[in-house]
Structure prediction request, 332 residues.
Amino acid sequence: MEFANKGFFLLLLLLIPFVLWFFLYRKKAEPTMRMSDTFPYQYAPKSWRVRLLHFPTILRTLAFILVVIVLARPQTHNSWGERSVEGIDIMLSMDVSTSMLAEDLSPNRLEAAKEVAVEFISGRPDDNIGLNIFAGEAFTQCPLTTDHQSLINLLVNVRTDIAAIGLIQNGTAIGMGLANAISRLKDSKAKSKVVILLTDGSNNAGDISPMTAAELAKKYGVRVYTIAVGTDKVARFPMNVGGTIQYVNRMEKIDTKTLRDIAAKTNGNFYRATNKGELKKIYKDIDKLEKTKFDVKKYSKKYEAFQPFALAAIIIILLEILLRVTIFRRIP
Prediction:
């Protein structure tokens, strides 16, 4: 425990003159009664009230000490906690090209993929998980982390309009998306390193071919689980025409052969998801992966801890006042 205002502890020095006054000068200020002889009272038994005569003063002193502690603002100590947990290192590599807006999955391919991915992340609290997104280019949205709430916040905010408005090149660079995810895993010390690659198209952009990226994955011991999301049928697709959304029907061809070859090359699995239910089953299957140990550091923030001391001070002050006006009341 730390104290934000340690200077207030100097107030405890006021107890020194109080103690000196109490033992040296207090009796001189109290009323007295003259008696001819006190011998008969020398061996008289002392009542419990006499034995506890100074108890209210002790309570008052203790309350003063507690008030000083409250003024000093006790706080919890910042620390890093380390623990060993079971988990694997996983990079989610998600296609965010405009074709992911097709509505053959509800409400569309991207939103369905995000919803199921959030459930997957929430179900694996001890895993290092990161997020990579790609269209015609690829970049890391979130590096490997056990701070899953931050990861989920970044994931739910992923949109396809980054390609539509030209922030990144539109298209489907599967090789780039996979290679970028591998770059985040290649130096990992985990025994199990996994990429979950989700796309709905064929590789038509990027400087790295999908199979070249698969060779890199094999070299660094990364298993790739590929997911082809979407149907082979015509699907509704929204398009911005003159500032309004118009729907067109079109069919996106998915290169399932390349996705199967990537999975086979890296000892992973290939999956096909034509609806949200199948997508959930796929993630449940991946959830059964082997696990390995790694260390996790957790950061504990400061918080104010004066409340127990303040409550104790209030109770003691009220108790001291009650005792002085009842049991230990003095006349005069």
